[in-house]
What does this fold into?
Amino acid sequence: MKKKTTIIYLISIGIALLFLIYYTFISEKDYYKIQSRVKNIETTNKIGEDYDNVAWLRIQGTNIDFPVVKEKNGAYKYPVDKDKYVWLINASNQYKDFIIINGHNIMNLSSNPKIKEKGFTRLEALMAFVYYDFAKENQYIQYTVNQKDYLYKIFSVAFIDNSSINAFINPTDEYTKEDIKEQIKLYKEKSLYNYDIKVNEKDKIITILTCTRFKKNQNVNFVVSGRLLRKKEQVQKTEIKKNTKNYKLVEDAMKGDKE
It folds into this structure.
């Protein structure tokens, strides 16, 4: 009996170790696979003669897999009647330590945003990150530029008022480490979730933003921010928890009011 018990015990330990190895070294590698978009930048049709395809954006769990365009004359006027594109706010087309990308949200403006819809051909699907379960499962942003694919870990999902957004958009891209530090602080303070991710002013940051009417009578944008995957850092899920104070505002908005 003792021998049988020992054998069963050893088999159980062996199975547990196999599961641990699989989930640590195999399954996590499949959690997000980079699918290069280098060729897509050149082969995708432009949205018009006045725009250039300069990069590519792909966001995990969404249908956001679009070219990033830039207007040639720098006026930042992007047509709402065109589908499947976003635009670069940065003055330069080159890769930067701090990248800002904007896009239209035409079809997903309610206080109970939809996660998926056939009509989502812009940044409508970004609003899915307002849901905790969705945010837990989808944590990566892929950005392709200058013949290279970059991967970012999301560290903040937030509603940020337009005055603050305008304050961190720099038309010359001359961001100091102190500037980036202040922006990271803002993102984390406003975030709906607390991500178990270390991020500081030495990291390279990407910010995706779109318009919303989610919060009644407030002029805010919906902002999802990530930091570049660090050297030798594994592509895996990060633990996240609701920021109780910030998320309560979301839950209250979802309940609606008499109007």
Remarks:
- The CA atoms of residues 38 and 215 lie 37 Å apart.
- The mean pLDDT is 89.
- The first strand starts at residue 51 and ends at 59.
- Helices lie at 2-26, 38-43, 132-137, 162-168, 177-190, 244-255.
